[in-house]
Amino acid sequence: MNLLKFRIGQRFAFLMFSITYLLAGLMKTIAQPPGISAVVPDNAPVGDTIIIYGSNFSTTVSNNIVFLGGVKANVVAAGTDSLRVVVPIGSGA
Known about the structure:
This protein has 93 residues and is mostly beta strands. It has one domain (2-86): Sandwich (Immunoglobulin-like), CATH 2.60.40.10. 0% of the residues lie in helices and 54% in strands. The protein contains no helices and 9 strands. The protein has a 7-stranded antiparallel β-sheet with strand order 1-2-7-8-9-6-5, with no helix packed on it. It has a two-stranded antiparallel sheet with strand order 3-4.
């Protein structure tokens, strides 16, 4: 599991993400792990949308799981290099 710390409101939140490994028969297929380069804006209130920039994200929205401040956030759009995520209640804002 990887962590990225950034500010939401007056508190810091941690973006947690993990890598899923797929096992097909005897051959193990490992996808490139996601990487995060920036979170914009770095300060956002509950209900606002933030953009997480990086690489190797899934283009299928439901395949991207994002936690902000330990609270699961709603990913509303996904591309290989960015995710749009709504800041959830209880995330530290």
